[in-house]
Each structure stands twice: as C-alpha cells, then as structure tokens.
C-alpha cells in the first residue's frame, strides 16, 4: 500500500493552496502527473507540484451542461 494518497485533480476543479492563503481559490487548468496548473484569483496561473505540496479540493469539477 502506498505511503501517500494522491488526489485525482481534474480540470475545472476548484482548489486552495493552504501554504498560500492570500492566493485565494484557484481553478485547475491542466494535470500532468503530479504537476497541476491552477489559475488562482489573486496570483494568476501557477504550476503546483502536488508531490511536494498539498492542494485542498474546494469543489469538484462540474460536468458540462447540455
């Protein structure tokens, strides 16, 4: 059994970076392995290495309407 649990972030999900609360909430743009590109409301687009820092899931991505 693995030591760490990796959350499956998906594009469109809303997240928060606990170590940078002033960045605000961000929306996941892309996910490539442990690298998650997030567009934060107060910091813009950032690449977060989830192998090194934790992202908190605020809200899961919603399926498109239609």
Give an overview in words:
The protein has one domain: SH3 type barrels (Roll). The protein has strands at 14-16, 25-32, 35-40, 44-49, 56-59. The model has no long low-confidence stretch (mean pLDDT 88). Helix content is 0%, strand content 41%. It has a five-stranded antiparallel sheet, with no helix packed on it. With 66 residues, it is mainly β. It is globular and about 35 Å long.
Order of helices and strands: EEEEE
Number of strands: 5
Domain count, please report it. Answer: 1
Shape: globular
Gap from first CA to last CA? 40 Å
Strand order, biggest sheet? 4-3-2-1-5
Task: Give the name of the CATH architecture.
Answer: Roll
- Binned strand content: 35-45%
How would you sum up the major sheet? 5 strands, antiparallel
Oligomer category:
single chain
Radius of gyration: 12 Å
Helix content: under 10%
- Total number of helices: 0
Structural class: mainly beta
Low-confidence stretches: none
The CATH topology is given as SH3 type barrels
Which CATH class? Mainly Beta
Mean pLDDT rating: 88
Tell me the layout of helices and strands.
Layout: E1 14-16, E2 25-32, E3 35-40, E4 44-49, E5 56-59
Quickly list its features.
66 residues; mainly beta; 5 strands; 41% strand
Concise summary:
β1 (14-16) and β2 form a beta hairpin.
